[in-house]
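[Discussion] Sanity-checking designs against the backbone

I'm trying to build intuition for which residues belong where. Below is a structure token string of 399 positions. I'd appreciate it if someone posts a full sequence so I can compare it with mine line by line.
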């Protein structure tokens, strides 16, 4: 009978892991802190003289590995050493970045048709802090230049392309060009695309953010975000410090889920894009449909631009039913396979009717001003057999 330490002590003790051979998959490091060999090592790591993990909020091997992969994907094929930081959500990516770059008195130049949460963040959180946002038509480059030229308080240009819900694109290269000319920073929300579909860094963006909750995770089972930047020092100093001290870090479990999703990103995005194009063509021909917004259709106003800056046209589209709100609601009720859910980028097809769902509490005039008409339906086209998606939409139309 061996007597070493007491029962309770053994219970509390962390045993060395019984690692024999290298795991084939990235381990999930569920630990809030990391041990030092001795006090000297601890001091060296704290001072940054030796690489090492300290505390989960500052970094974690699972989180850092996935962040590094996202940085490499966003800069793939480019001569840039992009740095990436995983954070707790897409909103957290935007707020962490803005808190790092801006001070009271600074302004953000952006567009009307942003993700709803982003518009609210700018209005309800940044505005009271003295950081104002100006919404302009970012497709009007002359206007953009004249606004920037006149207002030195504008420190960043923030945009989404294609935008929500009309899938209108903005010219990344032209916008970042104006930003650089006047020494302002440019930020692209690339959530709708992923780096498989579009790489804003290629066209000069300083920062790219994502809600990884959407296509990068791809399976609808985690909420997280990422900030990717081309300026290594800014990422490692200012932005890392904000993340660390504002506590907007990503947890290892969500990072691990993103890693899982990333393995199939290329084939998922290819299939999302193929299916979306087929669905867009089907809708285009349908007598109950008034308009279809998909940049892959040759008559979409942004088609040529999208063709230049996107590798495929992605999985998001929207369309306008004839017959307004009532037609929209009846259509939704007729669907059997497609799911009504307020997210996007999952493997299955998701439908959103902004007028009755996400924007039900927004004044009709405000909705209409942002192109959210009563009969508008947004689809995140999944990777199912496209015949089944189309058959389900047909069922909705028959209602
Ligand atoms: C969902 C989304 C966000 C916000 O991301 P969360 O992970 O929900 O915080 C930001 N931008 C776009 C384009 C989105 O679709």
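Best answer:
Here's mine. Compare freely.
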């Amino acid at each position: 009978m061996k007597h070493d330490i007491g029962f309770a002590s053994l219970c509390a003790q962390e045993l060395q892991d019984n690692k024999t051979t290298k795991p084939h998959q990235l381990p999930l490091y569920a630990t809030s802190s990391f041990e030092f060999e001795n006090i000297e090592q601890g001091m060296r790591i704290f001072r940054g003289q030796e690489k090492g993990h300290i505390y989960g909020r500052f970094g974690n091997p699972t989180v850092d590995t996935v962040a590094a992969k996202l940085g490499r994907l966003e800069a793939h094929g480019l001569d840039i050493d992009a740095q990436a930081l995983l954070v707790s959500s897409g909103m957290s990516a935007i707020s962490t970045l803005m808190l790092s770059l801006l001070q009271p008195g600074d302004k953000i130049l952006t567009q009307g048709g942003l993700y709803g949460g982003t518009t609210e963040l700018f209005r309800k959180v940044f505005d009271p802090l003295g950081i104002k946002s100006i919404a302009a038509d970012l497709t009007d480059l002359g206007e953009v230049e004249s606004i920037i030229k006149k207002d030195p308080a504008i420190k960043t240009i923030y945009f989404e392309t294609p935008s929500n819900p009309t899938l209108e694109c903005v010219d990344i290269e032209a916008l970042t060009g104006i930003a650089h000319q006047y020494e302002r920073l440019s930020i692209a929300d690339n959530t709708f695309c992923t780096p498989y579909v579009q790489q804003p860094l290629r066209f000069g963006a300083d920062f790219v953010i994502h809600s990884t909750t959407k296509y990068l995770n791809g399976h609808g089972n985690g909420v997280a975000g990422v900030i990717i930047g081309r300026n290594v020092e800014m990422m490692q100093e200012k932005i890392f410090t904000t993340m660390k001290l504002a506590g907007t870090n990503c947890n290892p479990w969500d990072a691990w889920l993103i890693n899982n999703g990333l393995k199939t990103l290329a084939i998922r995005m290819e299939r999302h894009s193929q299916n979306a194009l087929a669905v867009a063509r089907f809708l285009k021909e349908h007598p109950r449909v008034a308009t279809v917004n998909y940049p892959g259709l040759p008559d979409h106003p942004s088609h040529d631009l999208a063709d230049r800056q996107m590798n495929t046209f992605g999985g998001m589209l929207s369309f306008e039913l004839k017959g307004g709100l009532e037609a929209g609601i009846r259509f939704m009720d007729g669907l059997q396979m497609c799911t009504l859910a307020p997210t996007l980028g999952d493997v299955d097809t998701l439908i959103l009717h902004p007028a009755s769902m996400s924007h039900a509490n927004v004044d009709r005039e405000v909705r209409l001003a942002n192109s959210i008409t009563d009969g508008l339906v947004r689809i995140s086209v999944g990777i199912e057999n496209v015949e089944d998606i189309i058959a389900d939409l047909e069922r909705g139309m028959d209602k």
